[in-house]
Design goal:
The complex is a heterodimer of chains A (284) and B (230). With 284 residues, chain A is an alpha/beta fold. Chain A is built from 11 helices and 12 strands. In chain A, helix 7 links the parallel strand 10 and strand 11. In chain A, helix 8 packs across helix 11. By secondary structure, chain B is an alpha/beta fold.
Chain lengths: 284, 230
């Protein structure tokens, strides 16, 4: 089976944002425009995570989901602040195919069970955000990396699979946005332990990192963010509607980027993986 | 004066499945899509699409509760185009072996079986086994030379990737209805069937990018031309 390459777009209000270790979120542009560019370049799925929904309302998220679903035809997973079956239903009605649940599930694990019974396991993605404390100690965090839960990430991964989650989105908080590469130890530990597919996220700084987390980390799928966002920014003309977001895009207009990233586009990434004998879906 | 109207497709709403993405894909290719659980709406449409995500037994009992079983069977017998997607394909079979034995719509003779255990994961190697559910993109191929030339896959290239999410697959008794196959580890399984006015696939063309939309476009063209050749 082809490895899935999944852009992860973090959203704050109407904007696509990206930070480092979930902090210092920079505005990059309009999420739906980035999503469309990625879809056209051969993204196998899309993930939207609302970075602040745990704290504020989410009406604008539903609008963004609706606009995205009308023009992209690959699976769309939406997460961030979903707490109830009604929240999940609202996001699915707006056009999401799957939902990613973290905080509310850690607080009441039966949400995963109830939601997978109600909407089908394949609709429910457990979003596990992890800090590596060293010595093989991996702790799950909630509330977009702000709250420690005391829960061991591997135990939690086994539990959510048992409760009915159809997939696990596994994100390393301490690698996120750094470009230092995926946490291979974390990914391998969980991908080999759980019976459901694991999407590895957090840390991709080069094409090689993506190949590593598939080969050495055993990831079933990979999520990528900074690696492709900063590449798309460089390749789009400044008047592209992608940059028509609200807020401070000053940083972008000055040509800013993350110097640690050997950024690349999705086509280039897939071509690299294919050349490394990793099966990918050819972009149309 | 002739008035051109877009063909009407009714998407069966029985509380399960990604109805919205299917409706959007239908509209994208110029069909007029209506999501409905009303037998009268299904009866009037030019074509009926049975979607579905979730458990077989739950789906059958939902169809029974909504009193939709007979209208689906009538659709199939009347020659009106009937499409099935994912669980919607499985429901067409005689019976399923998902958590016990459950009777299906029995429009296609055969069974629904769980994907085999212990299939080698060829991507990761190191003795790793394939995970169930199978989630992701898989190439589909002809079941036999020319098996899809007369079907809604007629313009789909061999080896085209489509998006699958499933733990079960169908095993029709009559292999002639199998139009497309795909792989799970080293096991080949039925990815799509075609019989008279019925076309159904295990994958999700509405989530399979341009290659999937092309299948919807093919369906739309056939409906505009008055249905399937019998």
């Amino acid at each position: 089976m082809a490895v899935r390459i999944i852009p992860r777009l973090e959203i704050k209000g109407p904007n696509l944002v990206k930070g480092i270790r979930f902090e210092g979120l920079r505005v990059l542009g309009k999420p739906e425009a980035f999503a469309r560019h990625y879809y056209e370049a051969g993204a196998d799925e899309l993930i939207y995570i609302d970075a602040v929904a745990s704290l504020y309302g989410r009406n604008s998220l539903l609008d963004i989901v609706e606009r995205t679903a009308a023009e992209t035809f690959v699976p769309l997973t939406v997460g961030g602040g979903l707490r109830t079956l009604d929240d999940i239903r609202a996001v699915l009605r707006a056009g999401a195919d799957k939902v990613a649940i973290n905080t509310a599930a850690v607080q009441s694990p039966e949400l995963i069970r109830d939601a997978s019974r109600k909407f089908g396991s394949s609709t429910i993605v457990a979003n596990i955000e992890v800090i590596h404390h060293g010595n093989g100690r991996f702790e799950a965090y909630t509330d977009f990396g702000r709250e420690s839960s005391g829960v061991d990430a591997c135990d939690w991964a086994l539990r959510v699979a048992e409760l009915g989650a159809g997939e696990i989105l596994l994100v390393s908080i301490d690698r996120d946005g750094t470009g230092n590469g995926y946490d291979l130890e974390l990914t391998r530990k969980i991908a080999e332990a759980v019976p459901v597919p694991v999407i590895a996220g957090g840390g991709a700084g080069s094409k090689e990192h993506v190949g590593q987390v598939i080969r050495d980390g055993g990831a079933d799928a990979v999520s990528v963010a900074s690696l492709i966002h900063y590449n798309l920014i460089k390749t789009l003309p400044m008047d592209d509607e992608a940059f028509d977001g609200e807020g401070n895009t000053e940083f972008l207009r000055k040509g800013g980027g993350n110097k640690k990233l050997a950024d690349c586009g999705i086509r280039e990434l897939k071509a690299f993986l294919a050349a490394s004998a990793i099966s990918v879906r050819e972009a149309a | 004066m002739m008035v051109t109207q877009s063909p009407k497709i009714a998407i069966v709403d029985y509380g399960l499945g990604n109805l919205y993405s299917i409706a959007r894909a239908c509209e994208f290719v110029g069909l007029s899509a209506e999501v409905s659980s009303d037998a009268a709406v299904l009866g009037k449409a030019d074509a009926v699409l049975l979607p579905g995500v979730g458990a077989f037994a739950d789906a059958m009992s939902a169809l029974q509760k909504l009193d939709l079983v007979s209208v689906l069977k009538e659709t199939a017998y009347s020659g009106k185009p009937l499409f099935g997607i994912c669980l919607g394909l499985q429901l067409l079979m005689s019976e399923s072996h998902e958590f016990g034995v459950h009777e299906g719509l029995d429009l296609i003779e055969g069974t629904v079986e769980r994907l085999p255990e212990n299939e080698p994961d060829l991507l990761h190697g190191h003795g790793r086994k394939m995970k169930v559910p199978q989630v992701g993109w898989q190439p589909i191929d002809e079941a036999s030379p020319g098996s899809w030339s007369q079907t809604p896959l007629s313009e789909t290239g061999l080896g085209t990737y489509q998006y699958f999410v499933h733990s079960y697959y169908v095993k029709p008794t009559d292999l002639d209805v199998v139009t497309a196959v795909s792989q799970f580890g080293e096991t080949e399984f039925c990815a799509a069937i075609y019989k008279d006015n019925i076309f159904a696939c295990q994958f999700h063309p509405e989530r399979s990018g341009p290659a999937g939309l092309a299948i919807y476009k093919n369906l739309a063209n056939r409906l505009s031309e008055g249905g399937f050749p019998q």
